[in-house]
């Protein structure tokens, strides 16, 4: 049936009457339903893609368009793109970014880049923290609540994000927050003997077990990052800002004190790291200095922070338990009173949902990865995955002739100031 289906062209045409280029293999131009005067513009950079603000011609809504370039350069890059695409299509949670659509790739022979459409989020937590705009205690609480709410959902789906940092927490003008960038995400490893890569998490937010050479780790690495971000929200300064992974570990020990041998064992610290830490001489904990982060560092705030910044990952608080900490009660109330999509206001008053922090209904399934053995096979499989999504909808396509598309196309990948530094070889 779907042979002659029309396609809608992405917002790149700057005038509504502009005809699509024949390069898009389309027979129809779906007119925009609303006037849209805002120009298309770049809004930021993801881990390996450029993000633009554009208009969805099917409904006139402003959305974000992310280009994933050089997807098929290597087996690793194609697998990574496929995983991010699968995850973004799987998520259904208000505090986790999801794909609203994926632009039709045209003919398979010209399939080189992937364009993902997602909700438009004007800012991110990094931009907000370094901006001069005030951050009240209410802001901190509602942001932290949403980070943990999104992360609880991801963890319940069996997913470790592995790059939680302020720049990967998108925020819109209503303070709604969404966790994004799943380029480093993976499924939890159930086998404790399995070797996992240590080249994850931007150094400032990297958990001590990773810095100490643990080759097997879990959800607690994300919670550590949230703890660092919580402190950064309070003080507007990076909590542990070191030049190298070893110095990073030293800064952590300066605050938490020297971990015990048991803590180091449970963290999975390597022999070299354990020797280094124990030979350094005993450091007493200096957690009381957390009260100096800001005048918003109340007893409740510091109590929760100290439960996140725990050296031993097995003793570190989980997202679920952190969400039941009294510090987050006000954030929860604010979120569900005026920001969420799960509760509703009726003439009788606000009707609250029964489960404020829902789990994912199923685990993310990565079994498709076992059959991805070559770039060409991934390309074929990805093409099918994207075009199958368009079976029952008007597929989006890009007008390659539009000047703003040309400018978008030529914008390369941004330099990464916060690349994951290589782990210390202990
Ligand atoms: Zn709600």
TrEMBL record:
Q: Is-annotated flag, keyword Kinase?
A: yes
Coiled-coil regions listed: none
TM annotation in the entry: none
Q: What is this protein called?
A: Mitogen-activated protein kinase
- Alphabetically ordered keywords of this record: ATP-binding, Cytoplasm, Kinase, Magnesium, Metal-binding, Nucleotide-binding, Nucleus, Serine/threonine-protein kinase, Transferase, Wnt signaling pathway
GO CC aspect terms: cytoplasm; nucleus
- Name the source's superkingdom: Eukaryota
Organism expressing this protein natively: Desmophyllum pertusum
